Predict the structure.
Amino acid sequence: MADEKRKDDYTIEMGERNGDRFEPPRPAYPPPAPSRRNIMGHPMTPILSYCCSSILMTVLNKYVLSPNFTLNFFLLMVQGLVCVTFIQSCKTAGLITYRDFNADEARKWFPVSLLLVGMIYTGSKAIQFLSIPVYTIFKNLTIIITAYGEVLWFGGSVTRLTLFSFGLIVLSSVVAAWADIQHALQSYGHASSEASVKISVLNAGYMWMLINCFCTSTYVLGMRKRIKLTNFKDFDIPILALTTFFFEDWSAASLNQNFPPESRNNIIIAMVVTGLGTVFISYTSAWCVRVTSGATYSMVGALNKIPIAVSGLVFFDAPITLPSVSAIMIGASSGIVYAVAKIRQQEASKKSAGLPTTAAVGMVSASSQSARDSMRS
């Protein structure tokens, strides 16, 4: 009996005999095919979605904002209306939830709305006069202003690696501006009127870009805690509606200039798609952080500048020269170095802080404390 049991314990299934060889046994069940859930949970899915949304949004904005386009406030209002309509439809369908409109909240969010309008308006003016690569490179200057604003107002710190990234950011901006100016002079001649007009357009773009950097940093620094509670609320639409109807030209000549008959439908479609793009960028950003990590998202944001800049070279007449390509690479490198510096700084702060061994009395979560601070008058 014991011999039979021992024999049963060491029985090995050899499969089917095929001449002098044995075929391996077939599995009882076929291997499962990759499911849609696994694909949606793969880290590359949200990363690619975020990159595609950013590129689509930038390219379509540049397409609408031609040098002759003057209804910038109207474009921003349309984008806001499309965004709110889409989100309200999702709430009606039961896909998402958010707080109902509250007049007291709207009053407290009014300064944020003014800053937001200033940020997106100056950004639209900057991309209107600058090429996508130059706009993308100069946008990095916001990082420097925001970082030193955090040092002054929130007790932040700047490491040596961060300073090195700042140097790369400034260098990339200088190289990009020099490449643009040199291309304009070589294309039209140093003493021609066309070159003077082109240089004046570039100078206007640089001015709007500088104002946009300060507006963006002010928006981020001044309302850092309240930004977390937006929940897709768009209190800036009434401001945009007032500014477009009171400060922009709505004559028949202006409408024909901004919406030429040969491309009117395409411009309107692009405006609607960019409104939806604001929702998709917000969703894919949160999706990317949820599926990957904050460090990975920071690195993706730095590397994402390369395809955005390349899209300007592919879809528009941005000059492809050695200095312009060098500026793109230096700007992308500066973003990567800055992301690495922030990751190391966060890791160092966690190690120095250590882990608490006892629960503090009256401890609340960061989101709860942020909610309390934002609702104070």
